[in-house]
Amino acid sequence: MLIDHLNRQRLERDAQGLTRLRRVAESPCAPRQVVSQCGHPARELLVFGSNDYLGFANHPALIQALAEGAQQFGAGSGASHLISGHSRAHAMLEGDLATRLETSIPNAQALYFCTGFLANVALLTALGDASATIFADKLNHASLIDGALLARAPMQRYAHRNLSVLASRLEHCATSIKLIVTDAVFSMDGDLADLPALLELAERFDAWLIVDDAHGFGVLGTEGRGSLSHFGLRSERLIYMGTLGKAAGVGGAFVAAHPTIIDWLVQSARSYIYTTAAPPAVAHALRESLRLIGSAEGDRRRAQLQQRINQLREGLAELIATHPALGWRLAESSTAIQPLIVGSNEAALALMAVLDEQDLWVPAIRPPTVPVGTARLRITLSAVHSAKDVQRLVDGLALAARELS
What we know:
This protein has 15 helices and 15 strands.
């Protein structure tokens, strides 16, 4: 019965254009990657789907640091952090992260997690008890949604960036603890939350602001310190989650917050307590990544990334104006995430297929990841994309526009 049930559901997904397929990368993460897929030979593709915004995933210094970490600390941690898996590498990384966030969160401490999903589940389940209410933007990442659903606190979702509705709900909230939860850079639209206004609401209504900066850390702010730095924010009411597998180029995530909050996570967060610690070598490599992010090289790469963003937006704006009948729309984003919204699932898959024929890999994103009717190509840029790479994508989209008109 189970197999029949799953097969029926799979056929329904196929009919709706919602089937997900995996490709296998045969070479390191980079703008050009050798990729294979079931039934097809491996080939080199120009990739616009990675979150490696600074091009650090294959950086020689990080490869060397990872190897050094393995030589010093071995291949694995052997246990959870609270048993015997918390190494000197983990402790030093947490100290480095706390120092970077102290400019935004007074007396900040940091806690390292294996993944961002685990970090968000930890935050919301540990803080969202029966004394709390969670207020969440409707376009928050799935990890924030799932964390809130697992929490004992009720969740109230507000329309994307609709702060007047949020203010009204905060004003009428009866619980003693209020948690405002938001992405900083929204992963499918690339737009930024109005963090200054959200913090003002937190201060006015005695709430706390939980910020998921997965796509801002390393890219935005002074020396890549993230979205809080980008907006010049500083408050004890901020609880910050950053990921380390995107701009940082390695893996894992962290929470930075008031020392009491970090201690409570250590004491009560099940997705921290009951998970084997990440290999210490990864933490060792991340310390080198933080150094690179804050260096002159990091500044140079952030400037290069901004150049590519501007180039792409100018090229796509002209293309969309030339082919209005297609109904394509470029999202209002100033970040490395540049979604080209095309509408139906079928249209997104057809556009992706035409690009694939040109050896361009741009992933099509469909519901339930995005709302019905807003299927899109999620174009992501890296500092190590060249101007020629971006022009090739624009030219490929222009060819697709002519074919699909």
